Amino acid sequence: MARFSSFIVLAIALVSSTTAFPAYQSLGGLSQRQIDSIMPGLKAVKPKDPPPPLKDNGTKLVNDAKHPWKPLRDGDKRGPCPGLNTLASHGWLPRDGVATPQQIIAASQEGFNFESQIARRFTYSSHLIDGNLVTDLLSIGAKTDKTGPDPPAPANPGGLNLHGAIEGDASMTRGDAYWGDNWHFNETQFSELLEFMDKYGDGLYNYKVAGEFRYQRIQESIATNPEFNFTGGRFFAAYIETVVGANLFSDGRRNDSQVPADAARGFFQDSRMPDDFHRAARPFSTEGVEVVIGAHPFSPGRNVNGINTYTIDPNSPTFESDPDGCAQYEMFVNEAVVPLYPNPTGVLRRNLKINLQHYFDTFGGKCKQLFPYGRDH
Ligand code: HEM
């Protein structure tokens, strides 16, 4: 719960300021009185079903005439995910970086060939924690300029930038939240990634480089971040993101999950596809993650008492102990969602149930469904 406290302080500050509550800001952690005062200013929406998997799911030109890269405008939001940043900067997502879950899933599928089940799981988990469940809008990050009513970057923990259940430590190209900026591109870390690409990948980013760099970033966080936390969903996401980058930033005509250095810089730093970029040759999910883990098998845990005090958490699931994801599912619902929304009412309660159902559906019926807010919606 402690990890949500700074968010709650910020949310309360936003509520009590004269600024209108942003339509994409999460209501998690607010009191019923605060929510009641915000509700009249929000346009309540019943979430639509997620889009189906792609029918035509081969490679195609996606940096096309309809989706040119454009520079950021004042107010546009970007965050810790280079995939979503790129989709927004090419107009596959609204260029301002605020979108519905349906738009995020559709854009990830169309623009990159992200596989449907994982696109839905990433999106609904993120939306449940970081999105506004009444308006059905999620911000992929924070304003990239210093204008407007939101606190200036990097202090603004809006949207996906919120550190905790979704955004986490030991990212490849973003710093740990402990240092104050968990979402801007970090040149020092990227330079180190380039060195690893030269050493282990003949200048390319691939599974082997990902395996070595993932381990290196964990070791760095253990040695420098007294609050390093590598438990729960973060453990899984940290490994999966490394292969999503290899599989989806690789041009579909190569079809080898390898990414040249200049293309990697384009995605990670500038939210930009290479000229003539073709999406992956087929839908990709977590292919390659076993290679990354196999390079340096590691267990979830945290620094319990300052730097270099990494202690394994035996209660945190792993790829081996939780192959179907049921422990992750239960942990997410009980420890992340319910504490943020202990007693929701009305539209908020209905939309929580709808989004929780979409999230549960990504576990393929293998887990026992939880109904913290009742069954019907
Ligand atoms: C489907 C919806 C998606 C959501 C909600 C999402 C969300 C996120 C978030 C919150 C992070 C930050 C995690 C962290 O490092 O702390 C992240 C990282 C990342 N995402 Fe996404 N993502 C999505 C789709 C994609 C797609 C389609 C791609 C690739 C085309 C992608 C590639 C990556 C990579 C490579 C990272 C790691 C960045 C780094 O460690 O420097 N994601 N994503």
UniProtKB/TrEMBL annotation:
Segment forming the signal sequence: 1-20
Chain intervals for the UniProt region annotation (Disordered): 44-79
Basic and acidic residues: compositionally biased ranges: 63-79
Superkingdom in the source lineage: Eukaryota
Gene Ontology MF terms: metal ion binding; peroxidase activity
Keyword Protein transport: no
Domain (Heme haloperoxidase family profile) ranges: 65-293
Keyword RNA-binding: no
Cofactor(s), by name: heme b
Keywords for the protein's UniProt record, in alphabetical order: Heme, Iron, Metal-binding, Oxidoreductase, Peroxidase, Signal
Family designation: Belongs to the chloroperoxidase family.
Protein's name according to its UniProt entry: Heme haloperoxidase family profile domain-containing protein
Species name: Agaricus bisporus var. burnettii
